[in-house]
Design a protein that fits this description.
The protein is an alpha/beta fold and about 400 residues long. It has two domains: about 20-140 and about 295-365, D-Maltodextrin-Binding Protein, domain 2; about 145-295 and about 375-410, 3-Layer(aba) Sandwich (D-Maltodextrin-Binding Protein, domain 2), CATH 3.40.190.10. It has 21 helices and 13 strands. The protein has helices at about 5-10, 35-50, 65-75, 95, 105-110, 115, 120-125, 150-155, 165-175, 185-200, 205-210, 215-220, 220-235, 245-255, 265-275, 310-320, 325-335, 350-360, 370, 375-390, 395-410, and strands spanning about 25-30, 55-60, 85, 125-130, 130, 135, 145-150, 180, 260, 280-285, 295, 300, 365.
Length: about 400
């Protein structure tokens, strides 16, 4: 819904020392509620509390699709929080245009965010008409296939090294009563899985032609037809999942009830909480083992305009704290994501995180679809793939035609 409609419907160098008089509570809303996510967000809260202020946790259960409308309605309805999570991209664009979000340019320039935030596209996604409106905290990439080593050991099949080997191993898993591919029922999961398949099978150039250049002819063409064939395989392999949330699907992999899951690197937080070790208990295949490219999606915090002067000062402190090297390391090691700073020590990174860091260092990156599509276009895409994965009677050809129409009208 457009902000105008919502309004109508709803009528570091600045870090404060401990114990200063201006310290205050600041409510921070987000949708990080799984075990791994909660462990990670606790690191942000600890870092902010250390400034003498108090992080008041405003976690909203469910996915971003559930949380964002609540966040937006509060801001437009005159009940803003101190800070709120959005994904890198255009999700807060209309709030900024409506004059409801705080300009962080002064903080960003003072602390040289343009020099330390890598890749530059992350800060570009925070920038509207030359002003910076958010503090990026991580890089989350969707392009991963997570595999249960125990499941493949049980059926006597080597752990796959790529998507084709995974598909070929599916009959052995099914025979043993193991779900080949875990997939939750939330629409964003199906849409994300398709995007991952597109990069792996059609390649980076085709992905960018479709989502960055909005080329409907390419979306309707033979390269994308191959992706829909792979998506058809994926929905067949996922038909027994019967879970809703993404972390429930991850748990199927952790417990060996499913062979694998296409999911972003935030899944690492769940493996970590379960005490599993990368390379031993589970295997990760960036780019599905086919095309090692990662997307530079992820999360940023935006700061609504507040009338309270002390809370406004605390907003600056939080923005600064989020980009501190020690905060970046502590948070991202728990979250499974990559830091937005390229100058931090990640010697403690696990096997999968090191793979992501290597790909990032090589520059094999794409922007996430949240950065390339408007929320309206993204929602249409999610609705399509939710239906496609849930309805076997929808043919790949019919789904591709609808997809091309969405791209033709995308903004």
């Amino acid at each position: 819904m457009k902000i105008r409609s919502l309004v109508g419907a709803l009528a570091a160098t600045v870090a404060l020392p401990l114990g200063v008089a201006g310290a205050t509570d600041l409510e921070v809303t987000h949708w990080w509620t799984s075990g791994g996510e909660a462990a990670a967000v606790a690191e942000l809260a600890k870092a902010f509390d250390a400034t003498g202020n108090k992080w008041v946790d405003g976690a909203i259960a469910g996915s971003g699709g559930t949380a964002r409308p609540i966040m937006i309605s509060r801001i437009t309805g005159g009940d803003p929080m101190g800070a709120t999570q959005f994904n890198h991209g255009r999700q807060a664009e209309e709030l900024v245009e409506a004059g409801l979000m705080r300009d962080l340019t002064e903080v960003a320039e003072r602390e040289k965010w343009r020099e330390i935030v890598k890749p530059s596209s992350l800060l570009d996604s925070c920038t509207i008409e030359g002003k910076i409106y958010c503090a990026p905290v991580n890089i989350h990439s969707w392009q991963w296939l997570w595999l249960s080593n125990a499941a493949f050991k049980q059926v006597g099949v080597p752990v796959p090294k790529n998507w084709d080997e995974f598909v070929a191993a599916a009959p052995a898993l099914e025979k043993a009563g193991i779900i080949p591919l875990a997939l939750g029922g939330q629409p964003w999961q199906a849409a994300g899985a398709f995007d991952v398949l597109m990069v792996a099978i059609a390649g980076k150039d085709v992905f960018e032609q479709v989502f960055a250049k909005k080329d409907a002819e390419v979306a309707a063409g033979p390269e994308i037809a191959k992706v829909f064939k792979a998506a058809d395989d994926a929905r067949r392999l996922a038909k027994g999942s019967n879970v809703q949330d993404w972390n429930q699907a991850t748990n199927l992999v952790i417990t060996g009830k499913a062979g694998g899951q296409i999911m972003g690197d935030w899944a690492q937080g769940e493996f970590q909480v379960a005490g599993q070790k990368a390379g031993e208990d589970y295997t990760c295949l960036p780019g599905l083992g086919v095309n090692e490219v990662i997307s530079t999606g992820g999360d940023a915090f935006y700061f609504p305009l507040l009338e309270d002067e002390e809370k406004s000062k605390a907003q600056e402190v939080l923005a600064s704290t989020l980009l501190k090297p020690e905060t970046q390391v502590a948070f991202n090691l728990k979250k499974g994501s990559l830091p937005v700073r390229g100058d931090v020590d990640l010697a403690a990174a696990n096997d999968c995180m090191k793979k992501g860091l290597d790909i990032l260092a090589k520059g094999n990156v794409i922007q996430g679809t949240d950065q390339l599509l408007s929320p309206d276009s993204q929602k249409q895409k999610e609705d399509l793939f939710s239906e496609f994965f849930a309805n076997p009677s929808m043919t790949p050809e019919d789904a591709q035609k609808r997809f091309a129409d969405i791209i033709a009208a995308a903004d």
